[in-house]
Structure formats: structure tokens, C-alpha cells
Amino acid sequence: MAKHHPELSLLFHALADPTRRAILSRLAEGPARVTDLSEPTGLRLPTVMRHISVLEEAGLIATAKDGRVRTCAIVPQSLEPVRTWLDEQRARWEARLDRLEAFAMKAMKERTE
User: Fold this and answer.
1) What are the per-10-residue average pLDDT scores of the chain (113 residues)?
2) Contact 87, 2 (CB under 8 A)
């Protein structure tokens, strides 16, 4: 059985929403205020705050409050469990495809003999 990563569910849940992915893309350029993050979405501030809460709970972003201004910043290393899991899946499927190719080549060779 594959290794179980409890944080993967939180990470994939956070990444599943296009608004949250857009917020992460914007934060990849640098930290931003919540109001700046909400403008391009067309969503009301409380809705954007819920998205930010999901991202923060998953560890993808960190927020800081200075007076009345809340600023968000991406936490790039938080994606490492996702990258590791995807790399493991890719390796598993590449191995399966290699075995399938070897089987098909062997079957074709046996047919021509």
C-alpha cells in the first residue's frame, strides 16, 4: 500500500478550486493584500477570505496582519508533498507502461516467428 500523507487531502482540496489556484498564481509573483487578491475575482471580500482560509489551513499561504491590512504570501515548500506524490505516481505508471510495451513487443515478435 502507498504511503499515506495526511496533508495531501488538504492540499488537493485547496488546489481543486480555480479561484484558489488563481490566488496562488498571483502570490507566486509576490505577497499581496487581501483586497488586491479579491479585485480580479469579482467575489465579495468574505468569500475571498474563505478561500484564503482554506489555502492557509493547507499551509499553502501565510498571512500577516498590519493594522487593518492583511497580507498574504505563498509558502512554496508546502507543495513538496504534492510533488513527491505525483513523482511517485509518475514512476509507477511509467514502469507499468514500460512493462506493457515489453509485453507488446514480445507478443509481436512471437507472432512473426
Assistant:
1) 72 96 96 94 94 96 95 94 92 93 90 83
2) no
